[in-house]
Specification:
This protein has one domain. It has four helices and four strands. Helix 2 packs antiparallel against helix 3. Pfam families: DUF4581.
């Protein structure tokens, strides 16, 4: 994919989340740099030819969170830039102060299970007279 198309895809992706594309360079390496408050930053090296994407951060606080995305990239199959960026976003949710996606759906399910049964639900083994 041409680098300008990768930049356009990255800018579009940024419109739906807290990250901004702060730098795009094609001369030495095909690199896209992203930043979000509070100091969450990473960059993506885009493939040229048969290489795959690579994600990294120069921030020691951010590096451990990128492991999920790095594992995803190294797994079988070619990945698109948007797939890689979504995996990075998922990895950084705790640093951004956002709920974890899995926790969010679990809490919703758990909230549905709590509380008193509604009037159309009988409790098993309890006769109400």
């Amino acid at each position: 994919m041409e680098f300008k198309h990768l930049v356009e895809a990255a800018e579009k992706w940024c419109s739906g989340n807290p990250f901004d594309l702060i730098f795009a360079e094609e001369d030495d390496e095909r690199r896209l740099d992203f930043y979000a408050e509070p100091g969450v930053s990473f960059y993506v090296l885009c493939p040229g030819g048969t290489d795959s994407f690579h994600v990294w951060s120069e921030s020691e606080d951010c590096l451990p969170f990128l492991q999920l995305a790095q594992d995803y990239i190294s797994s079988c199959g070619k990945k698109t830039l948007l797939e890689v960026l979504e995996k990075v976003f998922t990895s950084f949710r705790p640093l951004l102060g956002l709920p974890d996606i899995e926790d969010d759906s679990f809490e919703h399910y758990h909230a549905d299970m709590e509380g008193e049964p509604g009037p159309d639900h009988q409790q098993m083994g309890v006769s109400q007279q």
